[in-house]
Q: What sequence folds into this?
């Protein structure tokens, strides 16, 4: 019988019927993101729910307790139970729906009984004495002081009443004397004030008497509440003391561990991974013997980091042919092959000093709803927006920002193993989203024929060129060639919709990457970006969807999943997971991390089929080596929050360059004015450029109509080609079967000649 089956059996046989004083059984408890749900032994007794790892632990170690009298019981689905009390929350899962219902019934009855006991102890307890002599003496002393103060107040009240009455008599006598009319009015006013004073003093003493009566009535309730808090404090102190003892014992065990486990001197990098494994084993909620899956919306696999001894034991037997037996695979110390780490091909060149800041963003307020309320459902590229919602970069420059972490491709080009290369390519595809986490502003829509070049040949060995090849729909073509062994090209069409509360941006088109030496050709597509809280609240951006990276030469794949953010999800925000598999579908590497911080990879040394989830889907459990860092986001420059959250590369994209084309985005006047903080002028210039572009489009449409009329007439007509980009032309891709724009050459040669006469006048 499986462990899960045993748990179910134990729960059904060992637990008495709900409603009895004690209820026991196995439940699955959520522990952490690595282990998921783990099986624990729960005991419900006297209104307290406690849990243990095993039944044997009941004699000495309690892992946690929650008081049902103040707990909230919730049921998420067929098998889940959520208990929350104060800042503590337990996410539990029963093996079956019937078992879940038994536990819920028992918990509800225990909660009702605990509340009833608390009320019985606090209310209607006038005849019950305090729990200790010291508490009773303290209470009696407090009441005596209150009574004494009340007597003092009563004495003062009597004196006030006596003197007030005398004062009123005197004033009445004065009223009877013959005094001027004005003096009589004043005496009458004083008499009225004396009467009000006496009434107020009587009200004060009555309120004090009511307070004392209330204090006497509720004193025992306060005493019970105080006693309960003292018991909770004592229980907490005992728990902390127990945890401190366990921590000390685990610390001693950790110190003694290096003497028991022999580590080869040739693998120094594994010490860190072993230390991490030992720390995880020391955790209260981590176990090495049981791996159960009970997550509903989790990935289709579970990863378990192997211990050091397990790595050495299984490395030669279980998956000796996992990567084709190549010597260049990640070895046992979890480092990349020497070919990937070789830096002989990266010549260090003196770098040009580039700018590190731009003018601070002005603080202009604008009512977004007044502009957007009439734009719901329209294509984003057709909405006229002021520059207040933009950042001083065009979409072509944002596309170029994909090269922020180009060194990942330089490293991948030196890899002999295509699987290792795939991991680095996947990290590169994820890294392109890291610059978007705080970038909620909209880039400028490029004008038709607009270009952008990024020449980093001397510094980093690559040259990049983008051109806006279509305006409706907006499409940009991008081509990058590197002297360090790779070429990247893509055509991206942006489909975007404003939905009232959020904005969806869906990049359409494939990204191609080819390595010169191996001929490996990778193709993938981007995920959907969503900007939330467009109307109300703080803007924030999220990435969601799946990416499949395919090596068309070897048929190896990488499946990446970008998990959408959910308030109710227990996943890490912006989480990305992935599996690298060979052409036969066998998994070799696990990728995990977040798209805004870092990505790690772990080599799989063993896989097995796990238990079935609630939907009957069986999940795979992967045992891996210690994770290895593939990519880490660069920190943002200083004062980035006032510079549109630009990265170090983004700050240089508008920096003036000598000899660029007349259509380059650096030359765009509205964008330059916005960067300088002159937003009013930028808005006027933006409207001028857009109207100029519309006039050119209308002229083209008129020419196309004239050509069509001539073709339909008796006379031979002339052929109208329409707009043709300067540096890209359409070709059918043999791998994807799609027709897209690819670089046809000539730009860099034209730049050397400085002959830009063919460039259109778009600015």
A:
């Amino acid at each position: 019988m499986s462990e899960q089956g045993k748990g179910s059996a134990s729960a059904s046989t060992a637990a008495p019927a709900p409603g009895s004083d004690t209820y026991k059984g196995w439940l699955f408890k959520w522990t952490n993101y690595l282990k998921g749900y783990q099986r624990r032994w729960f005991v419900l007794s006297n209104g307290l729910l406690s849990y243990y790892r095993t039944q044997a632990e009941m004699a000495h170690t309690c892992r946690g307790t929650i008081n049902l009298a103040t707990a909230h019981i919730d049921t998420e689905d067929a098998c889940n139970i959520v208990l929350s009390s104060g800042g503590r929350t337990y996410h539990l899962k029963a093996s079956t729906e019937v078992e879940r219902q038994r536990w819920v019934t028992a918990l509800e009855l225990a909660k009702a009984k605990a509340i009833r006991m608390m009320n019985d102890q606090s209310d209607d307890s006038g005849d019950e004495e305090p729990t200790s002599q010291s508490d009773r003496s303290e209470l009696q002393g407090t009441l005596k002081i209150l009574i004494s103060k009340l007597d003092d107040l009563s004495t003062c009240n009597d004196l006030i009443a006596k003197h007030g009455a005398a004062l009123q008599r005197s004033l009445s006598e004065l009223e009877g004397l013959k005094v001027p009319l004005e003096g009589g009015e004043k005496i009458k006013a004083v008499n009225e004030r004396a009467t009000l004073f006496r009434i107020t003093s009587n009200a004060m003493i009555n309120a004090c008497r009511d307070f004392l009566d209330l204090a006497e009535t509720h004193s025992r309730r306060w005493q019970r509440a105080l006693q309960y808090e003292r018991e909770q404090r004592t229980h907490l102190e005992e728990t902390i003391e127990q945890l401190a003892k366990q921590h000390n014992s685990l610390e001693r065990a950790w110190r003694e561990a290096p003497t028991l486990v022999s580590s080869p001197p040739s693998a120094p990098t594994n010490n860190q991974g072993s230390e991490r494994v030992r720390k995880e084993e020391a955790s209260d909620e981590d176990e090495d013997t049981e791996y159960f899956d009970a997550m509903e919306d989790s990935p289709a696999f579970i990863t378990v980091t192997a211990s050091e001894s397990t790595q050495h034991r299984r490395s030669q037997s279980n998956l000796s042919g996992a990567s084709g037996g190549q010597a260049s695979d990640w070895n046992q110390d979890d480092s990349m092959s020497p070919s990937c780490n070789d830096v002989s091909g990266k010549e260090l060149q003196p770098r040009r000093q580039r700018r590190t800041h731009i003018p601070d963003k002005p603080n202009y307020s604008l009512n977004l709803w007044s502009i957007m309320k009439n734009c719901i459902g329209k294509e984003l590229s057709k909405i006229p927006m002021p520059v207040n919602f933009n950042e001083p970069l065009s979409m072509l420059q944002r596309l170029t920002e994909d090269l922020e972490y180009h060194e990942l491709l330089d490293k991948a080009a030196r890899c002999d193993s295509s699987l290792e290369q795939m991991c680095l390519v996947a990290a590169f595809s994820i890294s392109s989203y890291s610059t978007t986490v705080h970038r909620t502003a909209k880039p400028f829509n490029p004008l038709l024929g607009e270009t952008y070049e990024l020449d980093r040949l001397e510094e980093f060995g690559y040259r990049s060129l983008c051109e806006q090849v279509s305006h409706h729909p907006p499409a940009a073509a991008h081509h990058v060639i590197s002297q360090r062994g790779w070429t990247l090209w893509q055509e991206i069409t942006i489909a975007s919709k404003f939905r009232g509360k959020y904005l969806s941006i869906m990049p359409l088109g494939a990204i191609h990457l080819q390595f010169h030496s191996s001929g490996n050709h990778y193709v993938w597509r981007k995920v959907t970006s969503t900007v939330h809280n467009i109307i109300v609240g703080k803007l924030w951006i999220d990435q969601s969807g799946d990416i499949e990276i395919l090596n068309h030469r070897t048929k190896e794949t990488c499946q990446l999943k970008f998990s959408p953010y959910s308030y109710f999800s227990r996943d890490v925000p912006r989480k990305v997971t992935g599996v690298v598999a060979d052409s036969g579908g066998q998994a070799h590497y696990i990728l995990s991390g977040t798209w805004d911080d870092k990505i790690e990879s772990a080599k799989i040394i063993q896989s097995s089929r796990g238990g079935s989830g609630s939907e009957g889907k069986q999940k795979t459990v992967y045992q891996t080596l210690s994770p290895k860092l593939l990519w880490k986001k660069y920190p943002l420059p200083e004062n980035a929050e006032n510079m549109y959250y630009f990265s170090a590369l983004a700050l240089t994209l508008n920096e003036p360059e000598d000899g660029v084309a007349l259509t380059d985005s650096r030359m765009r006047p509205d964008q330059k004015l916005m960067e300088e903080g002159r937003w009013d002028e930028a808005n006027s210039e933006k409207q001028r450029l857009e109207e100029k572009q519309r006039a050119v489009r209308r002229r083209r449409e008129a020419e196309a109509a004239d050509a069509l009329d001539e073709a339909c007439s008796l006379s031979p007509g002339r052929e109208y080609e329409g707009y043709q980009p300067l540096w890209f032309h359409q070709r059918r891709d043999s791998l994807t079967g799609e027709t897209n724009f690819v670089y046809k050459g000539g730009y860099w040669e034209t730049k050397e000649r400085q002959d830009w006469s063919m460039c259109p006048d778009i600015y």
The first strand starts at residue 22 and ends at 32. The two ends are 76 Å apart (CA to CA). The chain has a mean pLDDT of 77. Residues 181-260 form the longest helix (80 residues).
